[in-house]
Design brief:
Elements (H helix, E strand, L loop, with lengths): L13 H8 L5 H4 L3 E5 L3 H13 L2 E6 L16 E2 L11 H11 L6 H21 L24 E2 L5 H18 L3 E5 L1 E9 L2 E9 L5 E5 L2 E4 L20 H8 L4 E2 L4 E7 L17 H4 L1 E5 L16 E2 L1 H5 L9 H16 L8 E4 L1 H15 L6 H27 L8 E10 L2 E2 L12 E3 L17 H21 L13 H20 L5 H16 L5 H21 L11 H25 L23 H4 L1 E9 L2 E8 L14
Parallel strand pairs: 1-2, 1-9, 2-5, 9-17
Antiparallel strand pairs: 3-4, 6-7, 7-8, 10-16, 10-18, 11-15, 12-13, 12-14, 14-15, 18-19
Length: 657
C-alpha cells in the first residue's frame, strides 16, 4: 500500500507539528552516517551543503565537470515566494491555492502547503548568500508577475535567476567540501542503485573520463538528478539531461509517479529545421510585459509592423480577460497551438506567434518622461527611454534572442512557439520525500510531488531549494535515527558485486552490437514519436500506436546501434547510448500512463476529453489520484493509485477568464 505519511492535524499546522515531533540524530552520530547525493543542481547542491553543515558525511556526484554546469543555471525568469512585498494581497495560502489550481487539482495538498510555507525562508537564505536579486530604486527586493497568478511574487535576477541561485548554493556546497564534510565526485554518472535487505545502500557509478566502474556505500541515497524532458529529443533541456538515475531506481523498486505529466512552455524560439538538437527558452517573465498576438486574417504574410492594431488578434487577452497574457503555461501553450493549427501562425514555418514589446516600451517611456520631468520629449525620445527600461529588466533575454534569430526584438516582435520544458512526473515520494524504497529519496524535479499536472512558472527553483535547504534536513533524520547502529557496509558485499556485474554486462552488450545506426538518429526518432503522439495533445489511438512504435524502435536499437570508441575510455557516445536506452523504456511507460488517464488535466490534454470551448476537462470521479507505477520485471508494470484528498481546496473547473 502507498503510505504518503501525511501528518495529522490542520493543513497549516502539519509541517510545524512534524518538525516538533520528528526523530533527531545527535551531532556525534551524524559524523558516523554517510549520505550519497546524486546530482548537484539546485536541489542537490542545497541538500549536500545543508547535510554537510549538519555534520553528516556526504558524497556528491555530478556528471558535469562542475556543479556550476547543472541545468539549473538555465532557469531565467525567477523564483516564487509568498512575501507580499507588493502589498497586493499575496499570502502563504494564496501561493498554495494558486499552485494547487495551476496543477489542475492533481497534486498533494500537504506537500504544496509546506512548499508555500518555506518559500519566504528561501529568499532570506539566498539574500544572505549574496544572490543579486533585482531591487527597486529604494533598495527593496523587486517582484514581477508570472503565469497563473494575479499578484507579483516572483523574485528575479534579470533573466539569469537560476544561474545566480545556483552560484549561491554552489558556494555553500564548496564551503562544506573545503571543510571535509562533503566529498565531490565530478564527471561521475550513476548507473545502478544498490539495495541490501530492501534498503538503498549505495550506487554504482561510471567515471566518465576513464570509463571505470566504481562502488559507493551510503546509509541513504538522495536523487536530485532533474527531469526527463529530453525523452522528446527537442526540448529546452540541456543535451546532457537524462532519466538514468531515477530510471535505475525505478527498475529497482521505486514507483514512478504520473510519468505522462509533461509541461510544454509557451515562450520558446520556434524550430527552424531538422538540424536542431535542442530548443531555446525565452523566459515566461517576458509575458509579464509582452503581448501575444497573431493576425486576424489567415495566412497574413505582411511584416508585423504593417499589420494595424485593429487587424491583430490578442487571443489570450480575448479568451482569458481576467489573466490575459499571464494564464498558466498549459493554457497559453494550447492556445498558441490552436491558433497555428487553424492557419493563423506567423513566420516562414507558420508555427509561431508574436510576442510584442511595443506597448511596454511606450508605457515605460511615458513613465520615465514623467519621472524626469521632460515636458518636451518627442516620440523618439519616449521610445528610447522605454527601451532603456526594458533593457534593464530583460536585456540579456533580448540579446540572446537577437544572437539566435538575427532579429532585434526591440524593433520587431519576437516569434515564439511552445516546446517541451519541464516534467511534473517523477519518482513517487511520501511527505518525507522518501520513495517506495526505504532510504532512497528524490528531491526537486525528479520527484512528482508538488506541481500536479502543470507547474506554475517560477516554482521549479522554489521547489528545488525548498527540498534541499528546508525539507530534507528534517525528514532524513527521521530515517537515519534508526540507522545509527548500521556499520559501513563494505563494497565487496554481494549486492555491490551483482549490481556492478549488471552494469558491466549492459555496457558490453551495447558495445558489441556494432550495427549501422547512430545513437543520435535513434534518439531523434524516439522524440518524434513522443512529440507527435504524446506531446501537446494526445488521443487513445495515437498513444496505442506510439507504444507499438517505441517497442519496435527499442528492438531496432538493441540490434542495430553503433557506438564508436572503447569501454574503458572517455566515450560520450557510450554515455549517450546508455541514456537513450533508458529514455526508450520511459517513453513507453509515459504513453501507457497517458493512455490509462482518459481525462484532460493541466499539461495532459486528451482530445477526447475537452469542454465545448476547447479547455481541459477533468473527470474527478475517476482520476483523482496519483498514478504510481511499479516495475514488476522487464517490460511489465503494475499501476498503484494514491487517492488525492482535498480538505481545504475544493476542486472545480479551472477558469482564467
Amino acid at each position: 500500500m502507498l503510505d504518503a505519511k501525511i501528518p495529522a492535524g490542520p493543513l497549516e499546522k502539519k509541517w510545524e507539528d512534524y518538525k516538533g515531533h520528528v526523530k533527531l540524530v545527535n551531532p556525534a552520530n551524524k559524523r558516523k552516517l554517510e549520505i550519497i547525493v546524486v546530482g548537484t543542481g539546485l536541489a542537490g547542491a542545497s541538500a549536500a551543503a545543508s547535510l554537510g553543515e549538519l555534520g553528516y558525511k556526504v558524497k556528491a556526484f555530478c556528471f558535469q565537470d562542475s556543479p556550476r554546469r547543472a541545468h539549473s543555471i538555465a532557469a531565467q525568469g525567477g523564483i516564487n515566494a509568498a512575501k507580499n512585498y507588493q502589498n497586493d494581497g499575496d499570502s502563504v495560502f494564496r501561493l498554495f491555492y494558486d499552485t494547487i489550481k495551476g496543477g489542475d487539482y492533481r497534486s498533494r495538498e500537504a506537500n504544496v502547503h509546506r512548499l508555500a510555507e518555506v518559500s519566504a525562508n528561501i529568499i532570506d537564505q539566498c539574500v544572505a548568500q549574496g544572490v543579486p536579486f533585482a531591487r527597486e530604486y529604494g533598495g527593496l527586493l523587486s517582484n514581477r508577475s508570472f503565469g497563473g497568478t494575479q499578484v507579483q511574487r516572483t523574485f528575479y535576477a534579470a533573466g539569469q535567476t537560476g544561474q545566480q541561485l545556483l552560484i549561491g548554493a554552489y558556494q555553500a556546497l564548496e564551503r562544506q567540501v573545503a571543510l571535509g564534510n562533503v566529498k565531490m565526485y565530478t564527471r561521475h554518472e550513476m548507473l545502478e542503485l544498490v539495495k541490501i535487505d530492501d534498503k538503498a545502500r549505495g550506487i554504482i557509478t561510471r567515471d566518465l573520463v576513464t570509463g571505470e566502474l566504481e562502488r559507493h556505500f551510503g546509509h541513504a541515497v538522495l536523487l536530485c538528478s532533474g527531469g526527463y524532458g529530453n525523452v522528446f529529443y527537442l526540448s529546452t533541456n540541456a543535451m546532457g539531461c537524462n532519466t538514468t538515475a531515477i530510471w535505475k531506481a525505478h527498475k529497482n523498486g521505486a514507483y514512478f509517479g504520473n510519468p505522462c505529466f509533461t509541461q510544454i512552455h509557451p515562450t520558446c524560439i520556434p524550430v527552424t529545421g531538422e538540424h536542431q538538437s535542442k530548443l531555446t527558452l525565452m523566459s515566461e517573465s517576458l509575458r509579464n510585459d509582452g503581448r501575444i498576438w497573431v493576425p486576424k486574417a489567415k495566412g497574413d504574410n505582411r511584416r508585423p509592423s504593417e499589420i494595424p492594431e485593429e487587424e491583430r488578434d490578442y487571443y489570450l487577452e480575448r479568451r482569458y480577460p481576467a489573466f490575459g497574457n499571464l494564464v498558466p503555461r498549459d493554457v497559453a501553450s494550447r492556445a498558441a497551438k490552436e491558433r497555428c493549427d487553424a492557419g493563423y501562425g506567423v513566420g516562414t514555418s507558420k508555427q509561431a506567434v508574436y510576442l510584442d514589446y511595443a506597448d511596454a516600451i511606450q508605457r515605460y517611456g511615458h513613465i520615465e518622461v514623467g519621472k524626469r520631468g521632460l515636458t518636451d520629449a518627442d516620440a523618439a525620445a519616449i521610445t528610447s527611454l522605454g527601451k532603456e527600461v526594458v533593457k534593464e529588466k530583460y536585456g540579456n533575454l533580448f540579446d540572446m534572442y537577437e544572437k539566435i534569430t538575427g532579429e532585434n526584438p526591440y524593433e520587431v516582435p519576437m516569434r515564439i512557439y511552445p516546446a517541451v520544458h519541464y516534467t511534473m512526473g517523477g519518482l513517487w515520494v511520501n511527505y518525507e520525500l522518501m520513495t517506495s524504497v526505504e532510504g532512497l529519496y528524490a528531491l526537486g524535479e525528479c520527484n512528482f510531488s508538488d506541481h500536479g499536472a502543470n507547474r506554475l512558472g517560477a516554482s521549479a527553483l522554489m521547489q528545488g531549494l525548498a527540498d534541499g535547504y528546508f525539507v530534507i534536513p528534517y525528514t532524513i533524520g527521521n530515517y537515519l535515527a534508526d540507522e545509527i547502529r548500521t556499520k559501513e557496509i563494505p563494497t565487496s558485499h554481494p549486492a555491490f558485486e551483482e549490481a556492478e556485474k549488471a552494469v558491466r554486462e549492459r555496457i558490453e552488450k551495447l558495445m558489441s552490437i556494432n550495427g549501422t545506426q547512430t545513437v543520435e538518429s535513434m534518439h531523434k526518432r524516439l522524440g518524434k514519436i513522443m512529440w507527435d503522439k504524446c506531446g501537446m495533445a494526445r488521443n487513445a489511438q495515437g498513444l496505442q500506436e506510439a507504444i507499438e512504435e517505441i517497442r519496435q524502435l527499442r528492438k531496432e536499437f538493441w540490434s542495430d546501434i553503433r557506438i564508436p570508441g572503447k569501454i574503458n575510455d572517455f566515450n560520450p557516445e557510450l554515455d549517450k547510448a546508455n541514456r537513450v536506452a533508458d529514455f526508450m523504456e520511459l517513453g513507453e511507460l509515459m504513453c501507457m500512463d497517458a493512455l490509462q488517464r482518459a481525462e484532460s488535466c493541466g499539461g495532459h490534454f486528451r482530445e477526447e476529453s475537452q469542454t465545448e470551448e476547447g479547455e481541459a476537462l477533468r473527470h474527478d470521479d475517476q482520476f483523482m489520484y496519483v498514478s504510481a507505477w511499479e516495475n514488476t520485471g522487464g517490460d511489465n508494470w503494475q499501476l498503484h493509485k494514491e487517492e488525492l484528498v482535498y480538505d481545504v481546496v475544493k476542486p472545480s473547473q479551472r477558469s482564467y477568464k
